[in-house]
Amino acid sequence: MLQSKVRDGIIGLCVGDALGVPVEFQSRHTLRNKPLTDMIGYGTHNQPAGTWSDDSSLVFCLMESAAAFPQVDLYDIAERFVNWLDKNEWTPHGVVFDRGIATASAIERYKELCIRPDLAGGITLNSNGNGSLMRILPLAYWFKQETAMDRKELVSKISSITHGHPISKIACVIYVELAIQLIEGQSLAASISHMQETVLTLYKDEQPNNMKPFERVLKGDLALLDEGDIESSGYVVHTLEASLWSLLKTSSYTEAVLRAVNLGEDTDTTGAVAGGLAGLLYGEKAIPSDWIRKLARLDDIQQLCNRFEEAIRPTY
Question: How far apart are CA 237 and CA 241, in angstroms?
Answer without folding.
Answer: 6
